[in-house]
Task: inverse folding
């Protein structure tokens, strides 16, 4: 019998499609639509960071560099988080990556084998599912509910643990929920990780975008001896550097060390001049960060006030990030139906909550990292839509 050539691998053929991308593609047919979809700062990268990147190019930082990242940047990251977490870290605890997405890839690569299970929050960033699928793992969703303040609870996690559980992904502050996990729950999650022997992959890319008296705690600081964590982070959100693609992962040396070999086989290294810019971000003035966070807080207040005055839609006041997860269940539509109707009939692009998991049904994600005028217009159009219900 002749061999049948398989053109596309099952992994690629069955890779889970993103409804976020589906909505983006649909919005292309409405070029004049107001968009509250993209999870990206609307600020430019601060000038001193751009200048450092330019100097790096002028100084010919355009060749291969160390797979794990340039030593000064790794040391600076270790120093920053040693101080924040109250634990001793060295450059050996840090791996520089192509954005937080590659950092997540590495974290899963070193902890997950085919057939093993990874617990994820539901709703959560949809690429978690895709990354787990790529490795032949199984994503196990745990509901995160509005009546619990959109905070993941350890008791729900315990119910999802099996003898195949090898890791859990947590995300605080949360995209898409805008919530911050309580320290007490993180301590319980660390207890579960120790009891059942799984890793905790903590996505903390919004760790510096918190509002009011919200207290962000990293899983890395809940207990001095706890080392079953891999913290994923990035310069993208904090420093308005999304296009620079510079992220990192922090963890115990035995988990970080293999990542340099993985990097060598994927992209070799992140450009040196990009890493010079990231170094300037950490070591330079933080006034731009403070300004951006203050601006997001003002816009959070604006969207919270406006949504409260519209029939059939409500939202918890976001504690962090630049996302509002708005409840539209009273409209009697699915989140995709509502998002599509808003786009087609009112020229407003939003993200259906179902794009973030089954528990996101009945919600819309609204991004408020846009101009206040855009928020006002978006809310006007939501109000117009609600008035027709």
Result:
């Amino acid at each position: 019998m002749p061999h049948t050539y398989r053109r596309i691998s099952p992994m690629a053929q069955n890779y889970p499609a993103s409804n976020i991308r589906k909505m983006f593609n649909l919005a292309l047919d409405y070029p004049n639509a107001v968009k509250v979809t993209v999870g990206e700062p609307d600020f430019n990268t601060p000038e001193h960071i751009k200048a450092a990147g330019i100097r790096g190019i002028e100084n010919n930082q355009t060749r291969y560099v160390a797979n794990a990242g340039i030593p000064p940047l790794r040391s600076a990251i270790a120093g920053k988080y040693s101080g924040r977490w109250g634990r001793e870290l060295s450059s050996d605890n840090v791996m520089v990556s192509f954005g937080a997405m590659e950092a997540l890839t590495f974290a899963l690569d070193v902890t997950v084998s085919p057939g093993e299970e990874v617990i994820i929050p539901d709703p959560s960033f949809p690429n978690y599912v895709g990354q787990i699928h790529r490795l032949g793992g199984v994503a196990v969703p745990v509901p995160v509910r509005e009546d619990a303040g959109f905070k993941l609870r350890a008791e729900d996690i315990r119910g999802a643990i099996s003898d195949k559980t090898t890791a859990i992904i947590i995300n605080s502050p949360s995209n898409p929920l805008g919530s911050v996990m309580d320290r007490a729950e993180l301590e319980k999650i660390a207890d579960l990780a120790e009891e059942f022997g799984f890793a905790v992959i903590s996505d903390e890319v919004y760790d510096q975008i918190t509002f009011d008296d919200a207290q962000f705690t990293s899983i890395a600081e809940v207990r001095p001896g706890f080392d079953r964590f891999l913290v994923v982070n990035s310069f993208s959100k904090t420093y308005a550097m999304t296009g620079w693609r510079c992220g990192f992962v922090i963890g115990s040396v035995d988990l970080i060390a293999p990542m340099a070999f993985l990097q060598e086989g994927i992209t070799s290294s992140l450009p040196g001049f990009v890493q010079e810019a990231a170094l300037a971000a950490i070591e330079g003035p933080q006034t731009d960060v403070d300004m951006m966070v203050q601006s997001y807080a003002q816009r959070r207040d604006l969207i919270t006030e406006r949504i409260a005055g519209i029939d059939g839609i409500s939202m918890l006041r976001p504690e962090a990030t630049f996302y509002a997860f708005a409840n539209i269940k009273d409209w009697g539509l699915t989140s995709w139906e509502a998002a599509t109707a808003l786009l087609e009939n009112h020229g407003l692009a939003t993200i259906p909550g179902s794009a973030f998991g089954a528990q996101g049904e009945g919600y819309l994600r609204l991004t408020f990292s846009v101009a206040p005028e855009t928020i006002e217009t978006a809310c006007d159009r939501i109000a117009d839509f609600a008035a027709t219900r």
Summary: The CA atoms of residues 93 and 252 lie 6 Å apart. The chain is about 40% helix and 15% strand. The chain has a mean pLDDT of 96. The first strand starts at residue 34 and ends at 35.
